[in-house]
Write a structure and sequence with these properties.
Shape: globular
Number of strands: 15
Strand order of the largest sheet: 7-8-6-5-4-3-2-1-9
Largest sheet: 9 strands, mixed
Structural class: alpha/beta
Strand content: 15-25%
Bound molecules: iron/sulfur cluster
Radius of gyration: 21 Å
């Protein structure tokens, strides 16, 4: 039975493109909308899930991954999915159970601290959610305020016990390295407070300022609004990342992906599918899907998405065949993100290519390590992994 599940497991991603405010550095396709917009959106997502086979057929999506598929992971991402009412989340999970063979091992909800309430958390557990990815970002109120986040440090300490009391035994905390006003001391303090709260999983992201965001535009024009003058430099960010590596290692977390650490057995089952190129279906505005041979994405605009679904059409914006060349690039790029590394011999056999010439210069430069057939990013070069990928894709 386990082998059957492993061979046919399918992930489902549900995009919830709503936020309470817009963070200064973000330009995702998310909107701050009236709560009245939630129900029609959830209705459209449920229609897409319910009628996925017909929608795919009319949009030219083959989705051969549906054959004998067992859905074992669900991930509600955003935006801020915890803004939805619990009954909305329940409705979507019920729809997935009705439309697919479901054996849920992991059902994750991204939640922002200020949105967590006792009643809601209990309802999430009743709906089947067993993992919360908690958007902590920082424990410094100065940094949170400058970034335009809604919550403060006190909200994190209020919400985390509520999740535990509700029965969530798998919590992931996100931190962002590089927020305006962040210093070595404040970052160290955030790491210590995070570790003291004992989440099972931790993600550390380096701040990416979108050029179209308020902070991005301000940085481009050399201004100081949105604390643009207080954004740490690249060297500081690399130092923050290395501090996180060290602190989390000491606290017993295993570093398993460039941005992710877990207590043993708590690696994200859903996100591992992305890095292992396993199939997943995305539902909702802007959601991406991968069937094994095709990648596609829905229209980003939530209103357009709802209109299209209500008129019986799946608003697919990009539908691409994954060529063998592209698949190979993905194997290398996504595979190397995982610290176990990639089996070069296996990839060479599968794709009929020789990879030595691509890896030898990187090995010589100390950017990757080779051990037999396994190639992995060098531990001390993880903070500059983007440079490695640029070299590798040349
Ligand atoms: S960073 Fe997250 S919470 Fe903030 S606006 Fe963007 S999607 Fe919303």
């Amino acid at each position: 039975m386990l082998e059957f599940l492993a061979m046919n497991s399918l992930g489902i991603y549900v995009q919830v493109p709503f936020c309470q405010t817009k963070c200064t550095y973000c330009n995702f396709h998310t909107g701050v909308v009236a709560r009245e917009r939630f129900a029609p959106y959830v209705g459209a997502v449920c229609s897409e899930i319910h009628g996925h086979e017909g929608f795919y057929a009319s949009a030219g999506v083959r989705a051969e991954c549906l054959r004998d598929a067992v859905v074992d992971t669900v991930y509600f991402g955003g935006g801020t999915p915890s803004l939805l009412e619990s009954r909305h989340l329940q409705q979507i999970i019920d729809e997935i159970r009705g439309a697919f063979v479901a054996e849920f091992a992991e059902v994750t909800l991204e939640a922002d601290p200020e949105t967590v309430e006792e009643e809601k958390a209990a309802a999430w557990v009743r709906a089947g959610i067993n993992r919360v990815s908690f958007g902590v970002q920082s424990f410094s109120d100065k940094e949170l305020a400058a970034a335009g986040r809604m919550h403060r440090r006190a909200d994190i300490f209020r919400a985390a016990p509520l999740l535990r009391a509700a029965g969530i035994c798998n919590i992931s905390f996100d931190l962002i390295a590089g927020l305006p006003h962040q210093t070595t001391e404040s970052w160290q303090s955030s790491l210590e407070e995070l570790i003291a709260l004992g989440p099972e999983h931790v993600s550390v992201y380096l701040l990416e300022v979108d050029e179209g965001s308020r902070l991005g535009k301000e940085l481009l024009r050399g201004g100081v609004r949105y604390s643009a003058g207080a954004v740490p430099g690249e060297d500081d960010m690399a130092e923050f990342y290395e501090m996180a590596q060290e602190a989390l290692r000491r606290a017993g977390y295993r570093h398993y992906e460039i941005s992710n650490w877990a207590k043993p057995g708590f690696e994200s089952k859903h996100n591992l599918k992305y890095w292992r190129r396993e199939p997943y279906l995305g539902f909702g505005a802007g959601a991406h899907s991968f069937s094994g041979t095709q990648r596609w994405a829905n229209a980003h605009d939530a209103a357009e998405y709802v209109r299209a679904i209500e008129s019986g059409r799946l608003p697919v914006e990009q539908l691409e065949e994954v060529t063998a060349e592209r698949a190979l690039e993905e194997e290398l790029f996504l595979g190397l993100r995982q610290l176990v590394g990639i089996d070069v011999g296996k990839i060479e056999r599968e794709y009929g290519v020789a990879l030595a010439r691509r890896f030898d210069p990187l090995t010589l430069a100390g950017l990757v390590e080779r051990e037999g057939n396994v190639v992995r990013l060098a531990e001390e070069k993880l903070s500059v992994s983007n440079e490695v990928f640029v070299e590798l894709m040349k």
